[in-house]
Amino acid sequence: MVSDTLLAVENLTTVFDVRPTPVVAVNDVSFEIRKGETLGLVGESGSGKSVTAFSLIRLVQSPGRVAGGKVIFQGRDLLATSEPEMRHVRGAGIGFVFQEPMAALNPVMRVGAHIAEALIVHGLASKSDARARAVELLRAVLITDPEKRVDDYPHQLSGGMRQRVMMAVALACKPPLVIADEPTTALDVTVQAQILDLLRDMKREFDLSLLLITHDLGVIAETADRVAVMYAGRIVEQGTVREIFHDPMHPYTRGLLASIPGGGAGSRLKAIDGTVPNLASLPPGCSFAPRCPARMAVCDTAFPPVTAIDREHTVRCYLHTSPDPGARIPEPAGTAR
Amino acid sequence: MALVEVRNLVKHFERGGGLLRAKTVVKAVDDVSFSVEEGETFALVGESGSGKSTTGRCMLRLVEPTSGEVRFRGENVLGFSSARMRAARRDMQMVFQDPYSSLNPRMRAFTIVEEPLVIHGIGTRTGRRSRVADLFQLVGLDPAHLDRYPHEFSGGQRQRIGLARALALNPSFIIADEPVSALDVSIQAQVINLLMDLQEQLKLTYLFIAHDLRLVRHISSRVAVMYLGRIVEMGKTAEIFENAQHAYTKALLSAVPAPDPDAPRARIELDPALVNHDAPLRRIAEGHFAAV
Ligand SMILES: Nc1ncnc2c1ncn2[C@@H]1O[C@H](COP(=O)(O)OP(=O)(O)OP(=O)(O)O)[C@@H](O)[C@H]1O
Ligand SMILES: Nc1ncnc2c1ncn2[C@@H]1O[C@H](COP(=O)(O)OP(=O)(O)O)[C@@H](O)[C@H]1O
Ligand code: SF4
Ligand SMILES: [Mg+2]
Ligand SMILES: [Mg+2]
Fold this sequence. Notes:
By secondary structure, chain A is of the alpha/beta class. Chain A is built from 11 helices and 12 strands. In chain A, a hairpin with a 2-residue loop joins strand 4 (64-73) and strand 5. The radius of gyration of chain A is 21 Å and the shape is globular. In chain A, 49% of the residues are buried. In chain B, 32% of the residues lie in helices and 27% in strands. Adenosine-5'-diphosphate is lined by residues 16, 18, 23, 25, 43, 45-51, 63-64, 279 of chain A. Iron/sulfur cluster is lined by residues 250-251, 286, 288-289, 292, 294-296, 299, 304, 317-319 of chain A.
């Protein structure tokens, strides 16, 4: 249903013009986010998750540049939108929460001022009522004593509280889409659990769509409706959360799921061999080939095309490029699972 | 027999104390006792700042404890002279969390791994070269890369260099402080497998400090849960996971997200006001203690 689509990313490509060879950090990435859903973007560090997020809101820093593609948000292409209009989209259209809240908050600005600024810039509150709104938002993100905390500086808060403040800032203008880039990676598991619960509640209350970026498959399983798996700048598999966890198709997705500790105590873990690829020197064919237990001759020829397994489920792997669409190739003996 | 025994370990740090402000004392480790049996993996878990790393550092006297005892093979190392302590450290080593900052960027991998041998005056120059090459092989590194610098290795490989260095003096006891938390998901399992293989091959005893409870459940035989400087629960890993008694342990276990979208979610919130911080550890079952 096209009308349900809030954000459609088409063939997004972002390049860092570094020497000696430019690095393609985001390579031909396409996905969509529908109204009210959470899309989980998972991948290891350096796979291009954050650059994807920054590309969507056009905040990629030089030497990086968006080299191609479309980012259709609420019917218009953000990559063809003027900078003043983009400033309105950031905050009012798309809110964001980053991994390291300390870096995103201004150390000499009180908590309340961060929220007030967002409201005033977007004309959603006057100076006189911004403070009251800030207190209200702090209460919504479950900060105790919001009337007092509104006057705190960021360094006076714990990591979990800072992340809540970031969420209050992101939600201030009630944007329909929030991008959360590793919002809980720096936090303890107990605090992580609180923040994830809060994100879920906020999503319901504010009728949000969420792009949740993480490398933690547990967080994805708990939070996402659909999942995109990123490897070396590309989305290699995409599907509903159940398809990805119960019926993974790509050898990398399978390897990741299999490597989670959980088997018998003391047994060896099923590791993925090899090292995380260097984007500056990727192999000519499938970028996972050097680590893939199912590698075939064809894998070294060109990057595999997208195969649709099901309505929601797509994969880029030669194991699944069947000449007869719909037919599934049986699993090869060597596939890790 | 217990290889290492920690008794009533205390470490206080003094903070602040300016012209107008009173000094405050942080009780980073507050009367901690446990023992690690020869050949086992004993895990320390708990939230950030609960005192796990400080406990490990006190045991090797990388920081001086305020009071208590750390018995290694029956002897209290806290009473050792510095010369005696240096000798004892050959047998007790530490592997750190961050493979990026824990290796000197200006030293070649060979020199990093060789250094403890030089400090302890072990071997000739050529003998050390071949010992380091053997250590490289042992931890799954290519000896052809001996003369590379840390930045030329990936995170997982750097953690292997740290491990090779820790193993250089043939220790029997290794404190691994979050050895894989800084690594990529797909690399963590490789390093954990290596740690388990080395334990079997070299008969190592581990104190494993960790955040990831799934991992702890997988590799440790016993676990102690720290909360605000104290051990609030301790016992066989399976017993703790299935029969947790302390409110903090329950909250911690329930917070771990299951990698299964259909897993039931039953979050238990901790109400700090309900934790009696002075409750002593009480026997719950054979080898299972909780401060309840
Ligand atoms: N050198 C120091 N000076 C002052 N306080 C310190 C020092 N080292 C540690 N602390 C304090 O001691 C407490 C315990 O710290 P420790 O590093 O042992 O925690 P941890 O359990 O290892 O946490 P994490 O999971 O974050 O590594 C903290 O409150 C910390 O701030
Ligand atoms: N400032 C930069 N200069 C050069 N390359 C960069 C820069 N930022 C990111 N990259 C490249 O983009 C890739 C993806 O980075 P990023 O999106 O931050 O990864 P992730 O968020 O998945 O960990 C990196 O591997 C790196 O090669
Ligand atoms: S395309 Fe080939 S190398 Fe790449 S993941 Fe599929 S089987 Fe493995
Ligand atoms: Mg990132
Ligand atoms: Mg620590």
